[in-house]
Amino acid sequence: MTNSSKRGPNIRHRARRAAVQALYEWQLTANEPESVVDELIASGGQGRLDEKYLRELVLGTVNAVNKLDAALKPHLDREIADVDPVERAVLRLGAYELVLRIEVPLRVVINEGVELAKTFGAEDGHKYVNGVLDKADAQMVKEASGYSIGGVPPFGHSTSLRCLMDEDLLALEKVWAAAGSSRAVFPISPQRLAELSSAEIVRVH
Fold first, then answer.
1. 180 in the Ramachandran plot: left (φ > 0), alpha (ψ -120 to 50) or beta?
2. 33 near 22, Cβ under 8 Å?
3. Contact in structure between 56 and 18 (CB atoms under 8 Å)
4. Under a CB-based contact definition with an 8 Å cutoff, are residues 119 and 5 in contact?
5. Contact 177, 185 (CB under 8 A)
6. How much of the chain, in percent, has pLDDT values that exceed 70?
7. Closest C-alpha to 157, from 104, 103, 196
8. 10 Å Cβ neighbour count for 171?
9. Which among 116, 141, 124 is positioned nearest to 57, based on CA atoms?
């Protein structure tokens, strides 16, 4: 794997970059993921990164790998085991954030996946990653919530879904929440919205 990134990444991008390296090694060696992360951090050369997020990305992806592979499968043109190891690591990482870190904007997940594939993958690997994640995001959201992107309501689901709220919304007097479709919304105070949805207040990157 070669590193040819030319832009100055932030600490979360560095965490994702390190996570791809760790997942790549885990896929090839089946070593304990925690040990892989520890060794990667100890080796240095990663720059300042969000170490907590790095560990969550790697351990979360490994622990949910069967679920993530199943979510990716309809959008692949081959078996996941036949996907290039670098692209496989990037796709699994992207699927993890799409499915289990829903506070990360969809476009951020796809853009980061493309950049990581450009950094570590084959010449046209980023095109494959972009095509798969771009098709997968909408279906993953619908399967998880029962609603299409743009219409997912913050509460009232038949199954328990994690709800996250951007901390910046709390400064507003009123927000407009989705009500089941992209054309249906309702006004509500952010404080009441957080209460009804049991939202976890987060800083969205």
1. left
2. yes
3. no
4. yes
5. yes
6. 89
7. 196
8. 7
9. 116
Question: How many CB atoms are closer than 10 A to CB 157?
Answer: 15
Q: Quick one: tokens of 29?
A: 């060696």
With tokens 């506070």, the residue in question is: 103
| Chain centroid to CA 165 | 16
Give yes or no for a contact between 8 and 65, defined as CB atoms under 8 angstroms apart.
no
The pLDDT of residue 2 is above 70: no
The residue count of the chain comes to: 205
User: Does domain 11-145 sit in CATH 1.10.940.10?
Assistant: yes
Residue ranges covered by each domain of the chain: 11-145, 150-205
pLDDT tens for 140-178 read 767 666 777 677 888 887 666 778 788 999 999 999 998
- Provide the whole-model pTM: 0.71
Token readout for 76 is 């692949």
**Which tokens is 157 given?**
């689901």
145 token code pair: 């919530």
Please determine, for residue 186, whether its predicted confidence score (pLDDT) is greater than 70.
yes
Overall average pLDDT of the 170-187 stretch: 89
Residue matched to tokens 């009123």: 174
How far apart are the two ends of the chain, measured CA to CA in Å? 27
